[in-house]
Write a structure and sequence with these properties.
Strand content: 15-25%
Number of helices: 2
Shape: rod-shaped
Distance between the termini: 84 Å
Oligomer: single chain
Radius of gyration: 24 Å
Order of helices and strands: HHEEE
Largest sheet: 3 strands, antiparallel
Length: 119
């Protein structure tokens, strides 16, 4: 009985594909972890909200104003002003009042924009 032979080019191509797959398994989680934080925030995007406060104002006994801008309206405003596709809209409570944090995808880059939640 004769043994089948494997062409050297096919074996080398198979090894390259396996090495590429292993490399992708190692690199992709690292690259995706960068999307979690604000590392990809738009440097030129206007930040309407001042940021997060260390202690919630509601816990201090102060009444916070309710947002009167819908999340869909905040998404439209951000997309119209900065361009891109809306990925996510989250209502945040900052020291200056409530605001929406809107994530936009434009040209393969993620931009984070703050839109005031009150007129």
């Amino acid at each position: 009985m004769t043994r089948p032979t494997i062409d050297a080019d096919i074996a080398f191509a198979s090894l390259r594909l396996i090495a590429l797959a292993v490399l992708m398994l190692l690199v992709c989680p690292i690259a995706l972890a960068q999307f979690e934080g604000n590392a990809l925030s738009a440097p030129l995007a206007e930040q309407a909200g001042p940021g997060h406060s260390s202690a919630p104002e509601a816990a201090k006994g102060e009444a916070r104003p309710e947002p009167n801008v819908a999340p869909a309206e905040a998404a439209r405003r951000a997309s119209r002003e900065y361009g891109g596709r809306v990925l996510n809209v989250v209502l945040e409570d900052g020291p200056g009042g409530p605001y929406y944090r809107v994530k936009l995808l434009d040209g393969g880059r993620v931009h984070i924009v703050h839109v005031e939640a009150r007129h």
